[in-house]
Design goal:
388 residues; alpha/beta; 6-stranded parallel sheet; two-stranded antiparallel sheet; 8 strands; globular; binds 5,6-dihydroxy-NADP; binds zinc ion
Length: 388
């Protein structure tokens, strides 16, 4: 039975190759002080920075720069961002970049007016914000995380070797997000495919669980087919606007909470991947691809019907004359072939993980209970070993 749920998505999207002009419609809604959040400089190289500064000036804004948000933003950077926002009485946090900048902006937004340390409050105790939240806007330059239309904010604490995500409510979601697929053209290929696998896995995490007949799973299958199709075009021609726009749009729908409505979800690939990330600081999508096959092969017997459906509906595997196990395995084989074709990591050792990290990665993996099989720590370890 489709479970009971409520659904609202608070983010206004502007999508398309002219979408930046809508920043002019959004900016007048907020006060003068804008904290401009960006990463290591890709937006300066591709010219986006200059365009945005011009629009901010035209709208009479006082720009406070907050550069250097690293991939997998750290708790130290978060504390710095909070300090900048406090000192400058910031009215809007404008993130320009990928999921890291957007996540970071949300983490800053719930911490500016809060006296407690954000790591302890949101990432250890998982509390909800109790202070005034500074609004966030996002200009997305990389498709993958879905951060542009959700409340997720993942922060890494290298000292504690933990990478943890807090999913905040609608009041923390970006008030608006600007999505221009052309901005993603300048992404290095490795980042592009990491983003593509991240999208695909977000859908898997919500698909492989809760197997009553429900519309959410049909939507999930359509999204998977779209991203597989577009990925093959984009790796041949990264400037194919149609493929890049479909990838960007799929990323948003893959994790704006729609396809998890009314059903349980898994998220164990992300839990293991995040722990790998805490040890290696590797690219998020690659940590997921590197642990996925061992994980899915491990849980397949517990969710055999769904893996069979995945094989026939998503990968077009012919079921005739085959056992359920054969069909399911052929589906995973097709997925593996596709992963090789687009060129994502298939081993965590490729990402810098070493044997001596296995115990720590296992320890740092949060175990969630929504999947086909609630893993024991030993089973997590087995999967991590198989991913080496
Ligand atoms: O920093 P710059 O110079 O901008 O370079 C970035 C960065 O090095 C580069 N890049 C982005 N757009 C570009 C570009 N380079 C050239 N041209 C462009 N147009 O790409 C690199 C990676 O960027 P990043 O933002 O780190 O990637 P992504 O979007 O994959 O975000 C990853 C973070 O999001 C978290 C991850 O854990 C990770 O910390 N996630 C957030 C989620 C959410 N909010 O729901 C869910 C996800 O599962 C994920 O966990
Ligand atoms: Zn992800």
């Amino acid at each position: 039975m489709l479970g009971n749920f409520s659904y609202k998505n608070a983010t206004k999207l502007y999508f398309g190759d002219d979408s930046l002009k809508y920043l002019n419609e959004e900016l007048p809604k907020y006060g003068k002080n804008v904290q401009l959040i960006y990463g290591g400089g890709s937006i300066k190289k591709n010219g986006l920075y200059d365009e945005i500064i011009q629009i901010l000036k035209d709208n009479g804004k006082n720009v406070i720069e907050d550069a250097g948000v690293m991939p997998n933003p750290t708790v130290e950077k978060l504390r710095e961002g909070v300090k900048i926002a406090k000192e400058n009485h910031v009215d809007l946090l404008l993130a320009v970049g990928g999921g890291s900048c957007c996540d970071y902006a949300k983490a800053v937004s719930v911490s500016v007016n809060c006296d407690e340390d954000p790591w302890d409050k949101y990432y250890i105790r998982f509390e909800e914000p109790t202070c005034e939240i500074v609004p966030v806007g996002c200009i997305l330059t990389m498709a993958g995380t879905g951060s542009e239309m959700n409340g997720g904010a993942v922060i890494t604490n290298h000292e504690q070797k933990l990478k943890i995500g807090h999913v905040f409510g609608e009041e923390v979601m970006p008030k608006f997000s600007i999505l221009n697929p052309k901005y993603t053209f300048s992404l290095p290929k490795r980042q592009m495919v990491a983003g593509i696998y991240d999208i695909f896995n977000h859908i898997c995490e919500q698909y492989f669980s809760g197997d009553d007949d429900n519309t959410s799973d049909y939507i999930a299958e359509a999204l998977m087919k779209s991203v597989i199709h577009s990925s093959l075009i984009a790796i041949e021609n990264p400037e194919d606007y149609e493929a890049r726009s479909n990838i960007m749009w799929t990323a948003t729908w893959a994790l704006n909470t729609l396809i998890s409505r009314g059903k349980t979800t898994d998220w164990m690939v992300h839990m293991i991947g995040q722990s790998v990330g805490a040890y290696t600081d590797a690219t998020h999508g690659m940590t997921l691809s590197a642990v996925s096959l061992p994980y899915y092969r491990f849980i397949m017997p517990y969710g055999l019907n769904k893996f069979k459906r995945f094989a026939t509906e998503v990968w077009g595997i012919c079921a005739e004359g085959k056992t359920d196990e054969q069909i399911a395995e052929e589906g995973l084989q097709a997925m593996e072939n596709w992963m090789k074709q687009i060129g994502v990591a298939l081993k965590i050792s490729e990402l810098g993980a070493t044997e001596d990290m296995i115990d720590g990665i296992t320890e740092g993996t949060l175990i969630l209970e929504g999947g086909y099989k609630v893993l024991s720590k030993d089973e997590v370890k087995q999967i991590i070993k198989a991913s080496m």
